[in-house]
Amino acid sequence: MSLAAVDTQRKLPDLDRVPRVDEVGVNERVARFQSRSIKKASKVEALRMVLSMIDLTTLEGQDTPGKVRQLCQKAMHLHDSVQGLPHVAAVCVYPTMVSVARKALEGRDIHIASVATAFPSGQAPLNVKLEDTRMAVDQGADEIDMVISRGAFLAGDYAFVFDEIAAIKEACGDAHLKVILETGELGTLDRVRRASVLALHAGADFIKTSTGKIQPAATMQVTLVMLQAIRDYFYDTGRMAGMKPAGGISSAKLAIHYLVMLRETLGNAWMTPEWFRFGASSLANDVLMQIVKQETGVYQSADYFSKD
User: Fold this and answer.
1) Is 63 a catalytic residue?
2) pLDDT (tens digit, 9 = 90+) per residue, 247-260?
3) Does the active-site annotation cover 244?
4) 55, 132, 142, 145: which one is catalytic?
5) Residue 92 lies in a domain
6) What is the pTM assigned to this prediction?
C-alpha cells in the first residue's frame, strides 16, 4: 500500500534536518529531574496520577483467558481497602485475548490496548500486519501498540517505515495508534530522535519506547529525547501526541521522576492518561504500597497485593 493511498496530508519528513541530540545535556537534565524534592501532599497526588496512567500488561506466550480475566479484575479493583483510588488507563493484551478483556471490562471506563504487527519482532509482511491490526480492532481494541520495522529503519529505508506506520494508522480506524520504536535496538539517541519524528509525521497518536522484550527498555534519557520530539512536533503542527515509556519501570520513585520530566518538558496539558502512559506489569503494586505507606505510616506486606 502506498502512502498516497493512505493519507495525502502526511508527508515523509526530511530526517537529515532533525537536530542532533546533545547527549551530555540530556544526561545533565535527567540528573536534575532525579534530584527534585517532592512534598508529601504532592507525592500522594503524583502516586495516584501514576496509577491512572498505567497500561496494566500481560504479554506472555503462556497467557490464558483466565489470566487475562484476572488482570482485568485487578484493573477494576486495585486495592479495595483504600478509598478513592483511580483505575488504570488500560489493559494491554495480545489480539487473541482482546475479546476476553472486552467482556471482562464491559461497562467500565478502562481502555483495551492490543499489541499488533507481529509483536515484538515486527518481522512480517505488511498484509499480515494489517490483518493483525484489523483483527484486534474488530475484537474490541480501543488502542493498537504497533512495532516499527527496525531493520528497515537502521538500513535507512525511512520511506518504508513511514508508509508502514501510515498504513497501520489507516487500518486502526477509530482506535488510537501507539508506535513502538524499540529504542534498545536503535543504538543512539540521534536515531531515537529521528524515529520519533518519523512516527509522529506518519500519524502516531502516541510514541512508545519499547516492547519490554529487549534490554535496555525505557530509560529517562530516551524518554526525554522522545518528549522533546513531541514538543517540537506540537510547535510545528499544533497537534498533540502522547508518550508511553514501557519496560523496566517498576518502582513508584522512578515513575514520579518520569512525571517531573513530563511536566517540565511538555507542561500540565500532557499530565493526563490521555497523553501519557506507563507500560508496566509490576509498577501498580509498588505504587499501591507507597500510597498505603503515605496514608498509614507503615508498609503493608507484598502478600496483601495481587501478583497479576
Assistant:
1) no
2) 999 999 999 999 99
3) yes
4) 145
5) yes
6) 0.93
